[in-house]
Amino acid sequence: MPSVSMTVNGKQVGGEVESRTLLVEFLRNQLGLTGTHVGCDTSQCGCCVVHVDGRSVKACTMLAVQAAGSQVTTIEGLARNGQLHPVQAAFREHHGLQCGFCTPGMIMSAVDLLQHNANPTEAEVREWLEGNLCRCTGYHNIVKAIMAAAADMSGHAKAAE
Amino acid sequence: MAEHGIGARVPRVEDQRFITGKGRYTDDINQAGQTYAVFVRSPHAHARIRGVDKSSVASMPGVLAVLDGDDVKADGLGNLICGWLVKSKDGSPMKMGPHPLLAQGKVRYVGDRVAVVVAETYAQAKDAAEALVVDYEELPAVVDLAGAHGAAALVHDEVADNLIFDWELGDKAAVDAAFAAAHHVTRMELVNNRLIPNAMEPRAAIGVYDSGTDAFTCYLTSQNPHVHRLVMAAFIGVAPEHKLRVVGPDVGGGFGSKIFIYGEECVVCWASRKIGGRPVKWTAERSESFLSDAHGRDHISTAELALDKDGNFLAMRVNTKANLGAYMSTFSSCVPTYLYATLLAGQYRTPAIYCDVQAYYTNTAPVDAYRGAGRPEASFLIETLVDQAAMELGIDPADIRRRNFIPRDAFPYQTPVALIYDTGDYQATLEEALKLADYAGFPARRAEAQRRGKLRGIGLSCYIEACGIAPSAVVGSLGAGVGLWESAKVRFSHTGKVQVLTGTHSHGQGHETTFAQLIADKLGVPFGDIEVIHGDTEKTPVGMGTYGSRSLAVGGEAIMKACDKIIAKGKKIAAHLLEAAEGDIEFKDGKFTVAGTDKSKALGEVVFAAYVPHNYPPDLEPGMEEGAFFDPPNFTFPAGTYVCEVEVEPATGEVDIVRFTAVDDFGNVINPMIVEGQVHGGLVQGIGQALLEGARYDDSGQLLTGSYMDYCMPRADNVPSFAVVTSAGTACTSNSMGVKGCGEAGAIGAPGAVINAITNAIGRRVEMPATPEKVWRAIHSNVAVAAE
Ligand code: FES
Ligand code: FES
To answer: Does A142 touch chain B (CB under 8 A)?
Structure first.
């Protein structure tokens, strides 16, 4: 069996995997990082979104061995020093989640959006989320939360200037 | 309003774990020695099983067990049940074929469970399941409602003509007479499209047998762990009830699909014992969810409305054919009957209504309750029929509704279809919705759209639903096999912290927050000192679970009743401590006070005295823990008006929802933020039904819409943001909080509003889902008609 090593949430990790093992399986089953969810088998729901080298990736669509040597961030690694990421905080503040199953993927995806586009329009947020399904919220409050996080983050960025 | 009291927009306590990846869903649970189950499912809609060649996989790597229907039979396990007995017109009980845990003799739909393989790893189980050789003899299949009646094939040999029941409600003679004398009759045929629930968390179950105690634990994606335990024990025979613990941990959405008792959870428990007690875990792949979760809706109806010359409704007559799939799922029989025809009065004072329903078996997945369950079908039928009547008589859709509403001073109101509505003010929600939606300004917006080449339409839907289904004696007389009360326990600790144990189950609804608000308000305990516990038969009192928007109206009231007992006991203790008469003690804001004095004891002091009863009433039990059960006197009746505005692109048939307004009467509201969220989610499921979603089988019974590539789920860019008002409430009279329930409204009210808006835009009604192709064809045929 091939062995892989990568950095996950800032920690060096490694293990033996089958060559068919998906990144999401490695994270969930071998590392016990069960915050990354599996909601489909056709790469369409986005419940499994993580960051690989800073970009959002569907972890069900990548083999563990493909992520060898990469920097991976999962929902568990998003808060820093006990401080929620502004997108996490906004999801709570604006009720952007109900059952919570889609939430890790939604948040990781939204964080990536705001890296590219600090001030998205509502239409841009909705279009970006095309790869993330939510059956509970009707998206209304997810969109609201992401817009609020964008405003919050750019406010902070301005204040820091 | 207190910061955390009733009516406050309290952020949810459950969110911390979900936004940090610390939720604990069934598939997140891993235990030492865990094994993996994969089910072998039928590739055929209808076939005889000639043989299952277990030897073909028994020696594959890692395989621990291969079990099929013969093993189920040999071990004496019972069949899955339908818990609601519906009787046909002639008084005979509905006809059912057996529903085994694993198929016996025949398979009846694509996805039917044939066998299970248990192996050391998931990949090994999957490899072996794929390799298992099953010899099938294909049979002709009944694949839809149109083909069920008079089909050569029988889904179950014991059910003639595939007809499960032929049921009726209402006074047929009175309705026929009213139709005979009517000035105008509006008639329509309509389809309520079949849906696949698609909670984002697929179903999963882990069975663990402990030979030391001869007991089982089942971790399960369940909306009602106690109902699961009851059926798995009493009917399937997995274990006696006291030897079976069912835990519904965090559950990723349900929408009805996780109410039901499926074969998989029973099989993993049984298999765990068969392999010597190692845990057996099964998690559905999404493809399995599509094939094997109970589907929803799937009606074909003929609806008629009789009117006088002024547009007053005189009578309504409905015939519905309901597809219940290949087996009778847990509550399937009550959905197209008691949860459907009883709602056909809608918000109107139609004096006579008759409905008959024929339910058929087909070789498709079982059909059962999906968000709204029967009520969306009723509401959609009424609201499209009313619009059609308005169009035919040249009356404005808002006017025809105003003319026929049950007036606000007519409550309680007995409908001709069994229900008694307690409160409501339908005109008020309509007027507020029209104002918010700027109904008056619509013609100008339509004209402006026309200049851009778009067809703009507006549609109304004035829905009603019945939630918190009860009382038990009534549902029992209608065929329910269970009671529909709810339970609660309120438990204080020495230090005044509170545990609230509820028989309901939260899988997105936010009970951990809403119920804590109730207690904070009622007992004056700090919000942060309250913990809500649910979902574990070993911890909570026996409860009936969460569905039908019942948790607050029924479960919340049980909590209120337990609190009343806490207060009553506290008064006795306070009277003793304050050396006053019990009758003089008042409780308010967390304090027991001797009336008219400033002598008081805080609840915390009283609780402490109950646990350290050194100075205590001599005849009183120590401790502060009270339980209560609540069986409501009636259903609750949320209602409201939805206004949808669409723009249709005539060149492509694409429908864009440009504005959507929802005004709901949910009675009193505990946490408006959570309630609005419930509405948003329901609306998008309703819009999904109207525009995007539809389960399709081909002529051989293969599911064509078996993945997210083929079944069109609403995505963020398919839907708009919503204007939602939930403050237009008339207090419900069936519980002390005055609440009605809000979980299903959106899914019930939205389809009618969307379809009416499209009809208004293009002048012709299209069946759901109103895909661009159907809309384009409808527009095109209009053109053709006009050109002729
Ligand atoms: S699990 Fe659905 S996209 Fe990855
Ligand atoms: S919150 Fe349940 S799927 Fe999005």
So the answer is: yes
Q: Tokens 């002529």 belong to which residue? A: B699
The reply to whether the predicted model has a pTM over 0.80 is yes
Q: At residue B747, does pLDDT exceed 90?
A: yes
- DSSP annotation of B541: P
Q: How far A138 CA sits from the closest chain B CA (Å)?
A: 4
Q: CA triplet B715, B718, B720: central angle to 5 degrees?
A: 110
Instruction: Judge residue B293's burial from the number of C-beta atoms within 10 Å of its C-beta, 0-12 exposed, 13-18 middle, 19 or more buried.
Output: buried
Q: How would you label B482-521 residue by residue, b for 16+ Cβ within 10 Å and e otherwise?
A: bebbbbbbbbbeeebbbebbbbbbbbbbbbbbbbbbbbbb
Q: What is the SS3 assignment for B176?
A: helix
Residue written as tokens 């058929």?
B360
Q: Give domain limits for chain B.
A: 17-139+200-253+258-292, 373-465+637-786, 485-630
Right CATH number for B373-465+637-786 from 3.30.365.10, 1.10.10.10, 3.40.50.1370, 3.40.50.2300? 3.30.365.10
Strands (E), B202-241: 204-210, 215-220
pLDDT single digits (tens) B627-658: 999 999 999 999 999 999 999 999 999 999 99
Pocket of ligand 2 (CB under 6 A): A 97-103, 134-137; B 200, 252-253, 508
Backbone conformation region of residue B654, classed left if phi is above 0, alpha if psi is from -120 to 50, else beta? beta
Give dist(CA B270, CA B177) in Å, integer: 58
| B674 interfaces chain A, CB cutoff of 8 Å | yes
Given a contact cutoff of 8 angstroms between Cβ atoms, the answer to whether B111 and B289 are in contact is no
CATH number given to B485-630: 3.30.365.10
Residue nearest to atom 3 of ligand 2 (CA): A134
Q: Give the Cα separation of B245 and B134 in Å (integer).
A: 34
Q: What is the 3-state secondary structure (H, E, C) of B39-54?
A: EEECCCCCEEEEEEEC
Predicted ipTM? 0.97
Q: Cβ A98–B16 below 8 Å, yes or no?
A: no
| Chain A residues close to B719, C-beta within 8 Å | 138-139
**Nearest bound ligand to the CA of residue B286:** 1
Mean pLDDT of B717-728: 92
Report the distance separating Cα B757 and Cα B456, nearest Å. Answer: 8
Nearest-Cα distance to chain A for B464, in Å, is: 21
Q: Could you tell me if the CB of A39 is within 6 A of ligand 1?
A: yes
Could you give the CA distance from residue B386 to residue B349 in angstroms, rounded to a whole number? 13
Is the CB of residue B130 less than 8 Å away from at least one CB of chain A? no
The reported pLDDT for the residue numbered A161 is: 61
Q: What is the dihedral of CA B507, B509, B512, B517, to 10 degrees?
A: -170
Contact B26, B228 (CB under 8 A): no
User: What distance in Å separates the CA atoms of residue B197 and residue B255, rounded to the nearest whole number?
Assistant: 7
Going by the DSSP 8-state scheme, the letter that residue B691 receives in this structure is: I
For chain A, positions 61-120, list CB contacts with chain B under 8 A: 74-76, 78-79, 84, 88, 91-93, 95, 97-104, 107
Give the span between the Cα atoms of B393 and B589, in whole angstroms.
Answer: 58
Q: Does domain B17-139+200-253+258-292 have CATH number 1.20.140.10?
A: no
pLDDT digits (tens, 9 = 90+) for B84-136: 999 999 999 999 999 999 999 999 999 999 999 999 999 999 999 999 999 99
Counting Cβ atoms within 10 Å, is residue A82 exposed (0-12), middle (13-18) or buried (19+)? exposed
CA of B748 to the centre of ligand 2 (A): 19
A43 → chain B, closest CA residue: B708
- Comparing CB atoms, the residue among A32, A97, A129 nearest residue B19 is A97
Closest residue of chain A to B724, computed from CA coordinates: A140
User: B60, B128 in Cβ contact below 8 A?
Assistant: yes
